[in-house]
């Protein structure tokens, strides 16, 4: 099963966050001058999603040691190449960061404490339990995950839902969907709290209650069944959920993980019993099986004392710690295949995995193996990408994948998108690329490219070390407890990785690949729509193709043509007409300046060090698809995706990727009804490359038929049958109903409209919307030297073609609905449904007060729906609501509500949502509800991020009278003007239950 992969190396040194803050630029900063500001609330990974959460095994795999001379012979038909295939078998220890205070209480609790001031004024608290679904005993499944839910439903000190109110009262986001996850091997709980002494102590007390005093009230267990069932529907009743089951069956069969998916089964969930939950809890939630992690703006000595005082008397509730099952993997000696035919599958996907038992070591040998593996598969994908770009591949796109769904399994893959008629050829192509690598190895140029790309990742991490967030450190220490992965300082990490990369040769790549190719029989998954089943190869035909690998002749690849080191030369700079400050009395994080050039381009620069070593970019121009003819609108819907995947100038996408080797740069684009836009980021050291791409996309855009074909292959199936994608079908119905089928807003055009998409139309749209820079504004916020960015702006943006003409968008938005407009959609296969509502109310103007009210009301209504629909009725897993002021193109307030549930209950859930909105509008919130919502937003306003700065500066440029940049600063102060009565009035005015759009999605039969 494909899981997106960029850099997944370093033996756990670089870790995916399992739960933590999710912000626009992945980091926030505490501010105090002149006013507090906002950060996005934590958005932790869902707790029982085995497709997202890292899974672990902690036993050493049974692998063959390398030969005494450290060499590995090339793989042949009858040869066995020793694992792990490392030419350098040394295993030097990796030192842990000395700034982390570690220890163990007398009762066995391990702890990790670190002081860190990013974002500041916070503490990230974790309770890590070395027990997951693979540790369940007895016939029921999903016990570990259900137990995790129950920890939020009552402890001795905080009965029932009292704990939620306590945490909300000081601004913490709280609930099983944002504060915990359960995987096959572990369960981890997280609280991010303000760093004052009283609140941190309360947070630690909550962790202690979770460990020692969960009540498992039978009535609460019964009511939680519906919530977990809805989560089960969300996780499993989709094409991706069913595909994961296929992957789990293929890779986990016969292991302790077999049949123990964390979410469990519908039958087990429906019959979950309090006694078996208590038995699981008592067996694994023990002092000698957990760790406490505290990272943040704290005093480490005080925290150590608190840990001893609060957790020191914790005692086990079972006689002894159970022995965990052996989780080591054998080698996959025989090729195997799964054909996953699904009614909701969009494309035909061919995946070839080469799995091994995960190689573990005491020191840097695992790091070396992971770095080499990352380089190997990046080279393989780059080769195949070149075939795609040149139009010679039997597939439309290729990416790296992984089926390493538990830590003991090392299962990288090649993942290609194709169609049924080419599935066999695609499989052959992927297998032959593996065989070609075994026969011819790797070139020095390929090695250099792969090494530079991996080095760029670690360089960015190193350059940003001074702004490393609490969540990153906390994740590392959890990983160390669970899996023994080292947590070096970032300085040590960079030095170690740099040395390792310098020592990797083409022979080292070949030796590691040959060991994998000799010991990992290909495991194939072909997933496809049910409708094309007859055109696919059968399982026996797939196995025949695999068996014939090696007998098919393969040729050595041609070398790439010579390419320049950078996309373009720097133009002669143009002096700006003016440079001026945008606000009076700016403060350390937000004191932007504006440059205006003779071509009309405006550049706004906001230097800060919220994220060291990184720059964030946003650019916009008024106009959008509103200024296009109807015949060009479909081309506009997809033009940005096509152009930004076609390369630039004379370089196709594969060649552009080669030129960009070693850089950390992203530039994307999108066209809305009223604007055309860029979004991007770069490492500070790679800022010029970002400017070069912006310049070339506007002066030398490229539209390749390959990119058009990729877009058609990806989007065509859901355009033809929206019912295969419930989310897309819901969004399409929502906007089509709201905007009376105005094509410029649509998510999915009709089949006939989609068929008009072509190269000429994309080129025409792009040149019209992006060819004249005269009314564009480019905003840069982040860690940069102002003089350097002025020089880059003067060279690459001041020289863009521009007429200085400012376009005015045309209003194509129908008036807001004055009645209830309901639409029913049938989409998806499975036992799950959802309802969405969109409220739109026109306002005279936007402003700080409206923004502050919207933020408080979003929190307030979300809590009400969570408490009533989820906690009281047990009907849904995670209600979602957001209300916000915007322009469309005139000022409006929009409110979006989405809630899932069982198909037979979704109508009643929709009625309940309306009833609760009516109650809030008529009677207002309770004192406690308002106080908790206000506290959440007040706490959020203490933090800033670069994404907010970009939005504020772009909005001011597009709508200076309606959204002046000063509003961004003033909305923090406007929070004081929000009261329970004014929040009630906001709900009554902007969420009228007599006028809204409602879309209900129920599954196909």
TrEMBL record:
Query: Which portions of the chain have biased composition (kind: Low complexity)?
Result: 62-75
Q: Where is the Peptidase M16 C-terminal domain positioned along the sequence?
A: 272-453, 773-935
Record keyword Transmembrane present:
no
Against InterPro entries, the record matches this protein to:
Metalloenz_LuxS/M16, Pept_M16_N, Peptidase_M16, Peptidase_M16_C
Compositional bias of kind Acidic residues: 41-61
What are its GO biological-process terms?
proteolysis
Region annotation Disordered: where it falls in the sequence: 18-97
> Which UniProt keywords are listed?
Hydrolase, Metalloprotease, Protease, Zinc
Q: Name one Pfam family in it.
A: Peptidase_M16
According to the UniProt entry, its GO molecular function terms are: metal ion binding; metallopeptidase activity
- The Peptidase M16 N-terminal domain is annotated at 113-232
Asked if the Swiss-Prot or TrEMBL record annotates the protein with the keyword Transcription regulation, the reply is no
- Similarity section: Belongs to the peptidase M16 family.
What PANTHER family does its record include? NARDILYSIN, PROTEIN YHJJ
- Kindly provide the name given to this protein in its UniProt entry: Zinc protease
Organism field? Ilumatobacter fluminis
